[in-house]
Amino acid sequence: MKEKFKWILVAILIGFMAVVPLLTESRATLNLLTQIFIIAVFAMSYDILLGYTGIISFGHALFFGSGAYIIGLLLKNIGPSIPALLTGLVAVFLFGLLISLLIGTLSLRVRDTYFAMITLAFGELFFIAALRLRSVTGGEDGFSFRVPEILQDRVVYYYVALVFLILATWVLRNFVSSPTGKVLQAIRENERRAEAIGYDVFRYKLFSTAVGGVTASLAGALYALQMRFVSASVLSVEKTLDALLMTIVGGSGTLYGAIVGSALINWVHEWFSGLARVYPIFERWLLLFGIVYILIVLFFPGGLARSFTHILERKKNASRPEIKSTIGVSCGKEKKELSV
């Protein structure tokens, strides 16, 4: 019953998202929702590492930014055609797979802290390269490019991003629910115990890194297609911290928590930015959001999505004893009546 209710809720939510373009003509609203969908996939790719495998990476933006640069450079140099777009997406997939396997092979054999530092070093290496290779990347200024005509319609691209989110969620949900996903969660809980049982911890963590890297690369490609512009900022450590923040705020180890985190943070960013244009006090909106983030961590340590689920389960469990006691009382009354 619980599973059936969950799928009904998901179907209603997807149905509502599908008709949003029919309910509003606001270009800003569609752009914001499109960005939420794409960044949610990026956050979910980070949740595969942090929430399901227990890996902390400070260089996850490397994959996101690489995907953005690859698709942007191909469309800029070849032209805004569908073949160029498809070629770019294949290249993004392959590059994300290869670079994640390379980085994972070089860094996963060390302890978690050192792994985080190594990924940070790789991320900064790519970031500096993007700044220095101005003739190719445009440096800090970046470069713009044109997309195929069919994707120039914001409504069409809204649906592309929505389908991308649905497919990514379905694939990643099946992945974490598979036997491989269960092993990853066992590694997260106790790596030594998983190794003692006989699992090849390194191989499983490498597989997790590859899944997260490829997903982040594809998200970066779709982000670039939405912006039609790429700069070195997509490779910055701030992008990784954004994914980390969304995962923690929404609830790590849930996948859907990353979607909640993406929606909340992107919406708050847009809201505070709008207020800053009217009220000068909101020009320091990052400080205000920092306070909100601290409050969320203090009062919802498991994240908003996970905490909400726990509250519902607690209420459900609290109602069960009352039902049992009522049954017990009624049975007792019946026994007394029979004895009389």
Automatic annotation (TrEMBL):
It is found in: Cell membrane. CDD domains: TM_PBP1_LivM_like (cd06581). One of its GO terms (molecular function) is branched-chain amino acid transmembrane transporter activity. Its main location: membrane. The keyword Disulfide bond does not apply. It is a multi-pass membrane protein. Keywords: Cell membrane, Membrane, Transmembrane, Transmembrane helix. GO terms for cellular component: plasma membrane. InterPro entries: ABC_transp_permease, LivM-like. PANTHER family: ABC TRANSPORTER ATP-BINDING PROTEIN, HIGH-AFFINITY BRANCHED-CHAIN AMINO ACID TRANSPORT SYSTEM PERMEASE. This is Branched-chain amino acid transport system permease protein. It comes from Thermanaeromonas toyohensis ToBE.
